[in-house]
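in:
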């Protein structure tokens, strides 16, 4: 559901959403972000079974959904906790009752690190645990400073878990595999409020490589890099408690490696249109699409129809949304960008017909994480997209950057 007109207060919007609970799917105004909670439940069960079979733990990435309500569902299904990417996401999770959180990202701003340190103390008081990634001596030093200040001002003696990130081919954050990582491990161990928790090795570029065998080859190299680095750390007499990483595209490889102890996949819960184009590895559980933009046909031309969901309703960095087959009683439809508020629908087969004016079209976003980021609310539906009812709405507080 799009951001409310400014004259509506947040309370009024919440009231409108509350009134939707128990109403049929047809009552959801468009465009709206809708979560099929039955499909979410099945995806979570399949992930839990997969992780159990491979004797790895899973820590779902909450950057996908940004919702503490969905994070709690993940923990109920067996996740050890969640990953987040931002300080504000960690704060929203704690406020929503999630107490085992890993910020799988680097922070160096003292203001943000002060918030992280405060959060570490709050979580510890609630028997939880906060963790964070680092890739620089400066980041470690500032984190230690923030933790010491929080100890001095607020009392408590919380310890934060710290993972050293190695760059295993993504070319983003992380030090190169090898000695630089060992130097950072020593740096962490100089500070009492920091505890070396292991290595982070996330290969983001491998996730969307279409060929399953090419993904396997890329993660094979990742595993070699991790083994090499871990041996160097252990040679100093320092145990490496955990190796964490993996996304939806490659997780079968990390799970089977015997090296990774934790999977960070996030998108598997919603499964966007882009991930559906990956060649499925035989070992990969079947994950269903569970995140949709509900839209309505608002105009019909000679050779096209127009729906009310443009790129303000879904992210297009990974391509256009796919039209859900539910709308294809009259044959498959293609979606083309019609601008901010419009989507152009065309028939995609000779025998297909355009949808009629006023009909509902369900879109499967190309990329789920930034699509969620465009909306203030998601509406949970149970019982299917045709005859189901709204059961919950999940709003997240727009975060402090
Ligand atoms: C560090 C890290 N871990 C895990 C993930 C989860 O990946 P996915 O949503 O593709 O499963 C991401 C996604 O970008 C990430 O940046």
């Amino acid at each position: 559901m799009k951001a409310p007109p400014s004259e509506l207060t947040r309370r009024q919007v919440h009231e409108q959403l509350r009134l939707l609970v128990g109403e049929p799917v047809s009552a959801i105004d468009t465009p709206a972000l809708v979560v099929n909670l039955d499909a979410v439940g099945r995806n979570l069960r399949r992930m839990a079974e997969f992780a159990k079979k491979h004797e790895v733990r899973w820590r779902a990435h909450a950057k996908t959904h940004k919702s503490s309500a969905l994070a709690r569902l993940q923990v109920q299904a067996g996740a050890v906790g969640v990953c987040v990417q931002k300080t504000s996401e960690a704060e929203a999770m704690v406020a929503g009752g999630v107490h085992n959180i890993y910020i799988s990202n680097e922070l160096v701003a003292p203001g943000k690190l002060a918030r992280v340190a405060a959060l570490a103390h709050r979580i510890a008081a609630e028997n939880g645990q906060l963790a964070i990634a680092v890739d620089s001596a400066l980041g470690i030093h500032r984190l230690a400073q923030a933790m010491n200040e929080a100890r001095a001002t607020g009392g408590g003696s919380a310890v934060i878990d710290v993972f050293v990130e190695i760059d295993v081919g993504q070319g983003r954050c992380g030090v190169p595999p090898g000695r630089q990582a060992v130097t950072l491990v020593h740096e962490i161990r100089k500070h009492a409020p920091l505890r070396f928790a292991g290595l982070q090795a996330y290969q983001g570029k491998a996730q969307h490589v279409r060929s399953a065998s090419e993904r396997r080859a890329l993660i094979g190299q990742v595993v070699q890099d991790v083994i090499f680095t871990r041996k160097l750390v252990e040679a100093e007499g320092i145990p490496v408690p955990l190796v964490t990483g993996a996304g939806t595209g490659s997780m079968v490889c990390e799970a089977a490696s015997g090296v990774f102890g934790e999977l960070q996949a996030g998108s598997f819960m919603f499964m966007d249109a882009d991930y559906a184009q990956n060649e499925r590895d035989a070992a990969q559980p079947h994950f269903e699409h569970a995140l949709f933009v509900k839209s309505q046909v608002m105009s019909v031309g000679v050779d096209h129809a127009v729906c009310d969901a443009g790129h303000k309703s879904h992210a297009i960095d990974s391509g256009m949304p796919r039209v859900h087959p539910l709308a294809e009683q009259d044959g498959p439809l293609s979606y083309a960008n019609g601008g901010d508020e419009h989507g152009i629908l065309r028939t995609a087969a000779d025998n297909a017909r355009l949808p009629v004016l006023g009909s509902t079209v369900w879109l499967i976003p190309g990329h789920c994480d930034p699509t969620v980021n465009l909306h203030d609310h998601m509406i949970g539906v149970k019982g299917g997209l045709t005859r189901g009812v709204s059961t919950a709405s999940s709003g997240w507080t727009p975060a402090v950057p």
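note: Residues 396-401 have pLDDT under 50 and may be disordered.
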